[in-house]
């Protein structure tokens, strides 16, 4: 049986993982774009990105485009796997519940 | 970690919503360079056609291959599958317009200058029905502007398409890039 992932389950981190999971593997998303999509603040998003990076679920790349700094993030392979397992865990809970419990 | 079924259902709804939004915005962003490219090419192509109407065939005979090659290059990073799909769509459109002009011939330069954008606009509306409202709005806007110019302008319709049609594609390209 799949297990819960407490790092991923936090609401903002769950949305970060889901947002990154929806783009093709190997593609990066710019921090500013992710921030706009999630309507998050720099500090809040940065903190959750650090947590996910420490867990090895996402990788962060910092570079320059011309003179402008750019930060990009992407899911790692283990991040994809952990996210899939967490989604499976959530589905397992729902499948085991009665219709009344799902409301 | 103990989660209630309600918590699990809520989390799955959040995941689904985030993934749908992310995928839609990704599709928009992927399409943005193509609209910017063809917007610029419409400005150049229709602008030249207005100046040299007798050479419309030669102008578009040069513009279209340039656009297809540049459009293919703009797919860099989108994977091999996107490459062959782009090629297949391009060949389908070229074949369609060749067949359509064959059936409808004789077609005036003004009619062909309207027909092609109308078909492209229809394509955007159809894509948008599946992939998101920004494509629908872009298609409707291009079609409406094309028809407006065709109805209202007896002369310099190409200039209208260069300015208004090209600009609308460029603006749509910028809009698609935005979150």
Describe this structure in words.
- The complex is a heterodimer of chains A (103) and B (179).
- Chain A has helices at 6-9, 11-21, 31-38, 42-54, 77-96, 99-102, and strands at residues 29-30, 58-65, 68-75.
- Chain A has 103 residues and is of the alpha+beta class.
- Chain A has one domain (6-102): Winged helix-like DNA-binding domain superfamily/Winged helix DNA-binding domain (Arc Repressor Mutant, subunit A), CATH 1.10.10.10.
- A 3-stranded antiparallel beta sheet of chain A has the order 1-3-2.
- Chain A is elongated and about 55 Å long.
- Chain A starts with 5 loop residues before the first helix and ends with a helix.
- The mean pLDDT of chain A is 93.
- With 179 residues, chain B is mainly α.
- Chain B has one domain.
- Chain B has 6 helices and no strands.
- In chain B, helix 5 (133-152) runs antiparallel to helix 6 (157-177).
- The radius of gyration of chain B is 20 Å and the shape is elongated.
- The mean pLDDT of chain B is 93.
- At the A-B interface, helix 2, helix 3 and helix 5 of A face helix 1 of B.
């Amino acid at each position: 049986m799949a297990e819960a992932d407490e790092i991923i389950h936090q609401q903002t981190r769950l949305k970060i993982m889901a947002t990154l999971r929806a783009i093709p593997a190997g593609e990066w998303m710019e921090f500013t774009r992710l921030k706009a999509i999630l309507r998050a603040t720099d500090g809040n998003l940065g903190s959750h990105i650090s947590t996910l990076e420490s867990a090895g679920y996402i990788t962060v790349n910092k570079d320059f485009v011309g003179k402008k700094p750019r930060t990009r993030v992407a899911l790692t392979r283990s991040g994809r796997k952990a996210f899939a397992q967490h989604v499976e865990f959530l589905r397992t809970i729902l499948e085991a519940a009665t219709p009344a419990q799902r409301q | 970690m103990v989660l209630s079924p309600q918590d699990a259902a809520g989390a799955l709804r959040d995941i689904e919503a985030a993934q749908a939004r992310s995928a839609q915005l990704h599709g928009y962003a992927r399409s943005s360079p193509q609209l910017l490219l063809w917007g610029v090419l419409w400005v150049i192509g229709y602008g030249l056609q207005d100046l040299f109407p007798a050479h419309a065939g030669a102008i578009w005979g040069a513009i279209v291959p340039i656009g297809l090659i540049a459009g293919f290059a703009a797919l860099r990073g989108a994977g091999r599958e996107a490459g062959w799909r782009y090629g297949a769509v391009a060949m389908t459109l070229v074949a369609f317009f060749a067949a359509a002009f064959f059936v409808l011939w004789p077609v005036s330069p003004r009619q062909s200058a309207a027909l092609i954008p109308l078909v492209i606009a229809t394509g955007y509306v159809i894509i948008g029905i599946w992939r998101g409202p920004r494509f629908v709005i872009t298609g409707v806007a291009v079609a409406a502007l094309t028809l407006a110019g065709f109805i209202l302008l007896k002369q310099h319709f190409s200039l209208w398409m260069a300015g208004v049609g090209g600009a609308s594609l460029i603006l749509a390209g910028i809009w698609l890039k935005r979150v």
